[in-house]
Design goal:
Length: about 270
């Protein structure tokens, strides 16, 4: 499901003029990158680095922005879908295509200096990573403890000056495999009231985004932009919506249990 074999080009739709694209790109250059999804890439790109791993292909630069080409082994289309669903709820790195072709996808290195709000508190990080775990089964964004090989680090997270962005969503699950490994379970991190409150807020925001007719249209547009065939789009948008809403309902129930447990512990220790 959602495999590359389903990718088929759509009939050409009316395209914005070059003047309209220029205006949009100019506005985006100054905007907070967590608040909009970029247009497909056009024009030439400068290759600035090669890769020595199977995870990524070369890095390119266009203007002041850098893009890492995603290897087909990293399921780039799935990464694009997950990033689009989460965009604006948590700070994710965009997965963008070339205007001329959907076959090559790039992970944009987020310009952290343009993010207006500091978003790298422990509460933010706990809420964001828990949301990815509960909804998409993505547990690949985490604080890795120090060991004999080196100091602790944030895996698949770019960060600086109290700002961060998550990238690489290939371990996440969408569609039928979303339910493949049983019921929702928390990562059982060291949550606080602040992190659980943020988690509940993000769950509710995401649910409001994808429920109802507007939510269906939102998911349908994401799949259509990924160049799935019309038949796949109409069928899988509804299925994906149903599965995500089920997962969000379970996630909210679990988050409320976590909140109650934190309240109980706080009361228990306060009586000592």
């Amino acid at each position: 499901m959602f495999g590359e074999k389903f990718l088929k080009p759509f009939a050409k739709e009316p395209q914005p003029t070059e003047e309209e694209l220029t205006i949009a790109r100019k506005a985006n250059e100054e905007a907070d990158p967590t608040t909009y999804s970029p247009l497909p890439l056009t024009g030439s790109m400068e290759r600035i680095a090669d890769s020595d791993t199977l995870r990524y292909s070369p890095t390119y630069k266009q203007g002041t922005d850098e893009y890492v080409q995603l290897s087909s082994l990293r399921e780039p289309v799935k990464q694009q879908i997950i990033a689009r669903v989460l965009k604006g709820i948590i700070p994710v790195s965009d997965v963008v295509s070339l205007k001329e072709s959907q076959e090559v996808l790039f992970s944009k290195k987020m310009p952290l200096e343009k993010i207006e709000r500091e978003n790298a508190s422990s509460s933010d990080f706990l809420a964001d990573t828990e949301l990815m775990s509960l909804v998409f089964r993505d547990v690949d964004h985490a604080l890795v403890p120090a060991d004999q090989d080196g100091p602790e680090y944030l895996n698949n997270v770019t960060h600086a000056d109290n700002r961060l962005a998550y990238f690489d969503f290939h371990t996440g699950r969408i569609g039928n495999d979303l339910l493949a490994s049983g019921p929702v379970t928390s990562l059982m991190r060291e949550h606080t009231f602040a992190s659980v409150t943020l988690l509940l807020e993000k769950i509710q925001l995401l649910r409001a985004r994808i429920e109802g007719k507007e939510g269906y249209v939102f998911l349908e547009a994401i799949l259509r932009d990924a160049k799935y065939s019309s038949e796949i789009v109409s069928r899988e948008a509804e299925r994906l919506q149903t599965l995500l809403l089920e997962r969000l309902e379970n996630a909210e129930s679990l988050a409320r249990v976590m909140s109650q447990e934190l309240s109980w512990y706080q009361g228990a220790f306060a009586d000592e």
